[in-house]
Amino acid sequence: MNIGQQLFRTIWPLVREKGEHTAYCVAIIDQTVLPHEWRIITLDSVEQMVDAIRRMQVRGAPLIGAAAAYGMALASQESPSEQHLQAAASRLLASRPTAVNLRWAVERMMRTLLVVPEAQRCEYAWREADCIADEDVRINQAIGQHGLALLQRLAVGKPGRLNVLTHCNAGWLATVDWGTALAPVYAAFDAGMDVHVWVDETRPRNQGASLTAWELQQHGVPYTIVCDNAGGHLMQHGKVDCVIVGADRATCAGDICNKIGTYLKALAAADNGVPFYAAVPTPTIDWQIADAKDIPIEERDVDEVHIVAGRAENGCMTSVRVTPEGSAAANPAFDVTPARLVTSIITEHGCYAPGRLSDILQLVDPAIHPVTMQT
Ligand SMILES: CSC[C@@H](O)[C@@H](O)C(=O)COP(=O)(O)O
Question: Where does the chain bind substrate (predicted)?
Fold first, then answer.
C-alpha cells in the first residue's frame, strides 16, 4: 500500500550488521499508535515477536500468521535446535488463540525446518517466512478481484454510490498487504466504481474507527465511521448494499469466527435482505474443527472495556476510564456467525456458498494445507 509516496507492507525482514556476521531482524508498523502516529519498530527475537502479537502491535489473522512465521525465523537464528524451535512454537501458539493462521504458519514452519539439517535451518526459515508473506499478498489480490465481481454485480442498475459496511479492520493493516474484506473495496475504487464504506467503530479496541478509517483515508476511499450499533438502522433505511467482513477462523461448514459484533451485523443483514460476505483466505480455514463451538474465543483484559485510549487536545496520547470503578466487565474478542447467515465466502479461489467451502480442498496443496496436522 502507498503511504505518502512510499510503498509499504505491514511486515518485512531487515538486515542487521552484527560485528563480523550478518543477522536479520523484522520490521513492523506499530498498530497500537495508529492513527495518531506512524511508527516502525524492529524486533530482534522471537520473544519480542510474541510480545508484539500479544499486545496487538501486529494484529489481524493473516498478519498474525506472517508474524508468527517471521517469529520462527528469529527463533531459528537464535538456535536451530529442535528443542528451541519447539519452545518458540509453543510460545507463539499461546500468544493469541483465535486466529487459526497463527497455528497454520507455525506448523508449516516446523514441517519445513525439522526435515533439514540444523546448519541450514536458519536460511530455510527466512526463505519460508518470506514465502508465506508473499503468498498472503497474492491471495488477497485474488480475493480483491473475486470480490470486485460481486460488487460490480450489485452495482448493476443501482443509481448512486455502492455502500459497503465493514466491521473491525480486515484491510491491508490486518494482512501483509491489500487486506481481505477491504481488498474488493480497493479493487472497486481503483476500477473507478463509486464506492463508500460504513466503518463500524468496533469497540472495545476501535480497530474500525482507528485503523480501517485511517487506511481508507490513505487510499482516498470515501468512508463514514458509525458506532457499532448503527448498522441495523442503516440497513433498515436501505443505506447498506452489502456487508463484507474478514475472518479469524472459518470452519469447513462455512461458519465464520470474526471480531465480536460481527454476528449481530449478520443477523441485521439477514433480516433486511442485505448480502453478507466473508472474505476468507485458505490459511484461515480450520480443516480440523467440526463444530464452531470448539473454536477458542480469546478473552482479553477487561481494561480494554473500562478504559479508552486516544489523543488529547494537547496532542498527547492519553487514556480515560468510562465505567464506574469496581464494575464487573467481560471482554470476549470474537464471535461466530453461523453459515446460514452468510451469503457467500470470498476466497482466493473464487466465491463459495458456505456449505461448499470444503470444495477448496480439491484445489489446495496438501503439503501446505494438511487436513490433519501434527505439531
Ligand atoms: C483480515 S483479518 C480478519 C480479522 O482478523 C479481523 O476482522 C479481526 O477480527 C481482527 O481482530 P484483531 O483482534 O484486531 O486481531
Answer: 59-61, 96, 207, 258-259
Name which CATH class applies to 160-362: alpha beta
Joined grid coordinates for residue 72:
520462527
pLDDT value of position 374: 37
Return d(Cα 167, Cα 260) in angstroms, integer.
9
Give the pLDDT means over successive 10-residue stretches in the chain (375 positions): 91 88 94 96 98 98 98 98 98 97 98 97 98 98 98 95 98 98 98 98 98 97 98 98 98 97 98 98 95 97 96 94 98 98 98 95 86 50
Residue range(s) of every CATH 3.40.50.10470 domain in the chain: 160-362
Give me the residue label for grid cell 482466493: 348
CATH fold label, 2-135 = Four Helix Bundle (Hemerythrin (Met), subunit A) (1.20.120)
Q: How far apart are CA 181 and CA 162, in angstroms?
A: 15
**Distance (Å, rounded) from C-alpha 183 to C-alpha 199?**
15
Q: Which atom, in ligand 1's list, is nearest to the CA of 211?
A: 14
d(C-alpha 218, C-alpha 215), whole Å: 5
CB-based contact 57:30 (threshold 8 Å): yes
pLDDT at position 375: 36
Alpha-carbon torsion, ordered 260, 262, 263, 265, to 10 deg = 140
- pLDDT of 118: 97
Say if residue 61 carries a ligand binding annotation. Answer: yes
Cβ–ligand 1 distance for 279 under 6 Å, the answer no
How many CB atoms are located within 10 Å of the residue 351 CB? 17
Q: Does 96 belong to an annotated binding site?
A: yes
Pocket test for ligand 1, best of 11, 207, 300 (most atoms within 8 A of CB): 207
Q: What is the pLDDT of residue 327?
A: 98
Instruction: Please identify which of the residues 241, 248, 255, 286 carries the catalytic annotation.
Output: 248
Q: How far is CA 117 from the centre of its chain?
A: 33
- pLDDT, position 372: 59
Ligand 1 atom closest to 334 (CA) = 9
- Is 231 flagged in the annotation as binding? no
In the chain, list all ranges with CATH 1.20.120.420. Answer: 2-135
177 within ligand 1 shell (Cβ under 6 A): no
What CA–CA distance (Å, rounded) separates 189 from 196?
9
